[in-house]
Amino acid sequence: MIRIHNDKGLLQQIEIGPHRLNADVSPELGGEGAGPEPHDLFDAALGACKALTLALYARQKGLPLEGLEVKVSRDDSEERQGRYRLAVELTLHGALEQAQRQQLLRIADKCPIHKLMTSTEVLVETRLTGDEK
């Protein structure tokens, strides 16, 4: 379970099991800029999933992937048109052959978050609990 709470203001504390993160908005929007904005966390989930998927796959297949970098950028103008467009750039480190690099590129799009974002209808039910007076 993920728990998000705040004491005051816009800074949100996020608890994911034993892990603690913050989310906030920029000072221009009235926040403190003390953490990533929710859109950035969403985008980072995709990048982290691709990185982990590639690292695990390379380990399992014995590929000489020594490290990698994933950059995720978003086109905010697309969102206003009803689309959410993310561009992902992968930098693979190691003595990989071209065929191995192309194989890893294909595998990157099979990460669970990529699949969730692109092929699953996500339904969200929001309800009130507690503190009802």
Defining traits:
133 residues; single chain; elongated; alpha+beta
Compute the number of helices. 4
Large-scale geometry? elongated
Q: Whole-number average pLDDT?
A: 94
Largest sheet, in brief, is: 3 strands, antiparallel
How many beta-strand runs?
5
Strand residues, percent: 15-25%
Rg (CA only): 18 Å
Task: Give the neighbour order of strands across the main sheet.
Answer: 1-2-3
User: Share of helix among residues?
Assistant: 25-40%
The span between the termini is 26 Å
Overview of the structural elements:
This protein has 133 residues and is α+β, with helices and mostly antiparallel strands. It is built from four helices and five strands, in the order E-E-E-H-E-H-E-H-H. It has helices at 38-61, 76-79, 98-108, 112-119, and strands at 2-5, 12-16, 19-23, 67-75, 85-93. It has a three-stranded antiparallel β-sheet with strand order 1-2-3, with no helix packed on it. Strands 4-5 form a two-stranded antiparallel ribbon. Strand 1 and strand 2 (12-16) form a beta hairpin. The two termini are 26 Å apart. The mean pLDDT is 94.
